[in-house]
Amino acid sequence: xxxxxxxxxxxxxxxxxxxxxxxxxxxxxxxxxxxxxxxxxxxxxxxxxxxxxxxxxxxxxxxxxxxxxxxxxxxxxxxxxxxxxxxxxxxxxxxxxxxxxxxxxxxxxxxxxxxxxxxxxxxxxxxxxxxxxxxxxxxxxxxxxxxxxxxxxxxxxxxxxxxxxxxxxxxxxxxxxxxxxxxxxxxxxxxxxxxxxxxxxxxxxxxxxxxxxxxxxxxxxxxxxxxxxxxxxxxxxxxxxxxxxxxxxxxxxxxxxxxxxxxxxxxxxxxxxxxxxxxxxxxxxxxxxxxxxxx
Length: 295
What we know:
The protein has helices at about 45-55, 80-100, 110-115, 130-200, 205-220, 225-240, 245-270, 270-290; strands spanning about 5-15, 15-25, 30-35, 60-70, 75-80, 120. It is of the alpha+beta class and about 300 residues long. The N and C termini lie close together (about 5 Å).
């Protein structure tokens, strides 16, 4: 579902003022796919972002980005303790794994650790733990705004989907009438076909020929497809009335709609009924496109 939201914030420490902007964007998607873009020096924040996104959203391709403006560097270099701890833990894990495999590695030096990206930073560094709480608070504000925008779009989509279901219901009713007309037209055709077969094949068994013609009539019967379309229409209306995240269920239902429309077209053997089946497929395809916007 298409939506976007931004939220600005700031925090002041001994190092100066740090400002940030959360930028959230959402587009259609079958499931929930969250892409996170965070600056360095925010350990633990990505896990918070992903957990929070799952609390607010159920579906969509979501991009969550954070831009931060830290205090101007004063030309000095300082160690970021949180980043250094991450590097040291990683090096320790590598050493342990190598030992288990019987591989001997040289011990890393202090220079090796300092050479890792993010360990040495310019100027004073605000404590990452102090930033985590205000950053998380502003993230929740942005997620709320994103969800509100998605819900507003969903409310607008409700009328569109309801109209499309109405069209499917109307076409299903038309197919019932077209099937009745086809039956009346086919009866004399079957009788004429039976007479031609009996005239041209003197050894033909009348009962066997009648059975074959009856079998053809059964194969072209669309009663089951009409019944299933009616059940799917009711299920779709119930889902829309239910509210909440129903996008995946509606997506599955449109596949079932399409399956019945395909079968109807294959059994039609009648121009009018085929045209109705094609019109059904067109509306169902439009509905499937819109359903991708529903959470």
